[in-house]
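Saturday, quiet lab. Running sequence design on the C-alpha cells for the scaffold JK sent over.
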C-alpha cells in the first residue's frame, strides 16, 4: 500500500475511532475525550535549513492536496480552506480546546471537512526553530475557533 493510501485510511479511520476518556499525548500524536491528532509525515531532524525546509513544505503541501482530492472523490466533498491565523486572538482570554489549542500555534491553514458528526482536517504543522515540519491529520467534535 502506498504512503498516500495509508494516509487516506488513517484519516478515514479517525472519523470512526472512539475518543478515550482521558488525554493521552504521545510525541507528535495525541488523543482525548473529544479529539484525535496524528502525524502522517514528519520531516527528518536537521532539515530546518531554508532550502531543505522548502522542499519538505512543498512535499507536504502536495500530499495534502492529493489527500484532499481523494477524500473529495470518495464522497467527502471539497474541503473548506480554513486559516488559523488570528484564531487565538478571536478566542481572546478563553482557552481553546484540544486539538485547536495546538493547531492555532503550529498550523497556518487547514483543509477541513465536517464528517460523521466530527470535524476532520489536514495541515502542515510548523513546530518552530529546530523542530521538524509535520503533515498532520485530526478529528474533533469541537467547533473551529
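Result came back. Writing it out in full:
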Amino acid at each position: 500500500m502506498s504512503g498516500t493510501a495509508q494516509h487516506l485510511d488513517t484519516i478515514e479511520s479517525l472519523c470512526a475511532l472512539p475518543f478515550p476518556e482521558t488525554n493521552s499525548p504521545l510525541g507528535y500524536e495525541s488523543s482525548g475525550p473529544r479529539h484525535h491528532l496524528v502525524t502522517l509525515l514528519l520531516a527528518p531532524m536537521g532539515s530546518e535549513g531554508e532550502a531543505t525546509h522548502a522542499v519538505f513544505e512543498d512535499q507536504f503541501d502536495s500530499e495534502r492536496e492529493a489527500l484532499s482530492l481523494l477524500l473529495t472523490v470518495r464522497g467527502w466533498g471539497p474541503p473548506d480552506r480554513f486559516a488559523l491565523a488570528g484564531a487565538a486572538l478571536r478566542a481572546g482570554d478563553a482557552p481553546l480546546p484540544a486539538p485547536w489549542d495546538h493547531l492555532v500555534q503550529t498550523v497556518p491553514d487547514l483543509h477541513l471537512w465536517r464528517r460523521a458528526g466530527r470535524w476532520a482536517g489536514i495541515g502542515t504543522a510548523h513546530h518552530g526553530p529546530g523542530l521538524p515540519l509535520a503533515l498532520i491529520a485530526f478529528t474533533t467534535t469541537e467547533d473551529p475557533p
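Notes for JK: Residues 60 and 130 are 18 Å apart (CA to CA). Residues 51-125 form one domain. Ask whether to fix the surface positions before the next round.
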